[in-house]
Fold this protein.
Amino acid sequence: MKFKTHKKKIGVLGLREAGKTVFITSLISQIENSIEAEGRVFKDITAYVPWDNNTFEYKQYRDAFSHQEWPEKTKEKTSFKCSFEYKKWKYKDVNLELIDLPGERISDYLMLANTNFDDWSDAILSDLSIPRKVREHYSKYINYCSNGKVNESTIIMNYKELLYHFADNYITSSISPSTFNLDQEGKPIKRCKDINSLLNRRYVGIDAENQFAPIPKSVITKINEKHKKKSRKEKKTCADYQLLKLFRKRYELYRDKIVIPTFKDIAHCDTIVVLVDIPDILSSGYHKYNDIQRYVQHLVKCLNPQSPMYRALRIFSSKISSRISTIAFIAVKADLVRIGDIGNLKELLKKCIKNKMSVIQNVKQHYFVVSSATATMPVENNPNILVGNPTKAMKDGEPITRDKNDKNIGFEVPQIDNQWPEDNWAVENYVYPELFPFISRREDAPLNHINIDKVFELFLEK
């Protein structure tokens, strides 16, 4: 045993389908199999020991890869802890903790500084008023709240309808309460023909009995003025006052049960990793691009010392020695692009994010491009073609569904420039297939990857 222990806590964030589970599984695979594996990349690791109380189901996820299947999305915050010796540090062991955090919860960031329902309502409605794409639906909601005939079930349903239009237009970073976007079972919202049925299944609160919706400041002021001279007994018969009181109570419950625990976990990390799926942005269009930028802006407000959100985070981390010192933005799924375009992924990542992060001086920033579990192979002498096993393909002009045991086939992939598309963003030019994993069935074989070792080196920086 060495004389000192170096502790590192890494929080992994990312929006839906960014691949957090795959990223962490790949990283653990490299560490666990680094001692004896041929071609190992972590050559300075010895005496690796996973802890017993891990909630991140690494063995289960690795087994999915052995059966040519992608692991299921994690349903809640999970973590994986391990210890090892690092040869480069003569007198230190390493305790490493990887935390899979629900990135969708970042959209609740306004609840950090706004400790009461009234202030949050004003802040979130101001935030929701910005995107032009959904302004008509926003105005409809405000008009309903202002008509003087608000009741609990109707205002909640109207608010959920507004949030659905945000989700339908890739504006998920503004959805709060975030449980509407990602429920507590880890199920994301999906497009549905029967919208009312979908809205009934989604909650704006911790559960069906504790939902709440923002009320405009002018309406809250009217309610308070209307009832300020009434006795407590008289107020019990006033529906609008009781609704406001109910929402205030449910907001506090949500903040205590969902928001504060999430941001405490973030505040206790040394390093934050944010996974960004650039092929998905390119195939979705500028709405998704703008949403990623809003997501980063929310993070900036949490990390900027001038922000009230930052001060709230400092309160959460005031009793611990470690605070966020590093943030790494990682462009994932590099195996979906041409070998010659991998460098352009990094340029696109920087051009999307770096300007938004420029106001942060107290946190080191890094940018990487990785493939956590490579599912393709390049074709020699033909850079336009990759080989893999797509879940779907075309045969005689018709789409067909393929099996995970089918043979690999070649397919053409779009070229990626080092500049984002302009306003004439043609998403049909950026089509990427969904692929079965291209992984060894041997469980002791590290996952094939691109640049995971470079990210790991960052984690071990002193």
